[in-house]
Amino acid sequence: MGNWIHSQIQRPDRFWKPVRSAIPALAWGRVYRREWLAGDLMAGLIVAIMLVPQGMAYALLAGLPPQVGLYASIAPLLLYGLFGTSRSLAVGPVAIVSLLVASGVGQVAEMGTAVYWQAALTLALMVGAIQMGMGLLRAGFLVNFLSHPVLAGFTSAAALVIGLSQFKHALGLSTPNLEFVDTAVYTLQHLAETNFITLAIGLGSIAILLYFKYALGGQLKRRKLPAGLVTPITKSAPLLVVLLATLLVVALRLDVAAGVKVVGYVPAGLPPLTTPTLDLTLWRALLPTALAISFVGYMESISVAKSLASKRRQKINSDQELVGLGIANLGAAFTGGYPVTGGFSRSVVNFEAGANTGLASMVTAVLIALTVLFLTPLFAYLPQVVLAAIILVAVASLVDIKTFRHTWRYNKADAASMLVTFGAVLAVGIEMGILLGVAAALLLFIWRTSRPHVAVVGRVGDSEQYLNVQRHTVQTCPRVAAVRIDESLYFANTAYLEETVLRQVADQPELAHFVLICTAVNFIDASALDTLASLRQELHDAGVTFHLAAVKGPVMDRLRAVGFADSFGPENIHLSTHDAMKAIGCA
Amino acid sequence: MGNWIHSQIQRPDRFWKPVRSAIPALAWGRVYRREWLAGDLMAGLIVAIMLVPQGMAYALLAGLPPQVGLYASIAPLLLYGLFGTSRSLAVGPVAIVSLLVASGVGQVAEMGTAVYWQAALTLALMVGAIQMGMGLLRAGFLVNFLSHPVLAGFTSAAALVIGLSQFKHALGLSTPNLEFVDTAVYTLQHLAETNFITLAIGLGSIAILLYFKYALGGQLKRRKLPAGLVTPITKSAPLLVVLLATLLVVALRLDVAAGVKVVGYVPAGLPPLTTPTLDLTLWRALLPTALAISFVGYMESISVAKSLASKRRQKINSDQELVGLGIANLGAAFTGGYPVTGGFSRSVVNFEAGANTGLASMVTAVLIALTVLFLTPLFAYLPQVVLAAIILVAVASLVDIKTFRHTWRYNKADAASMLVTFGAVLAVGIEMGILLGVAAALLLFIWRTSRPHVAVVGRVGDSEQYLNVQRHTVQTCPRVAAVRIDESLYFANTAYLEETVLRQVADQPELAHFVLICTAVNFIDASALDTLASLRQELHDAGVTFHLAAVKGPVMDRLRAVGFADSFGPENIHLSTHDAMKAIGCA
Question: Which positions in chain A touch B450 (Cβ < 8 Å)?
Answer without folding.
Answer: 141, 144
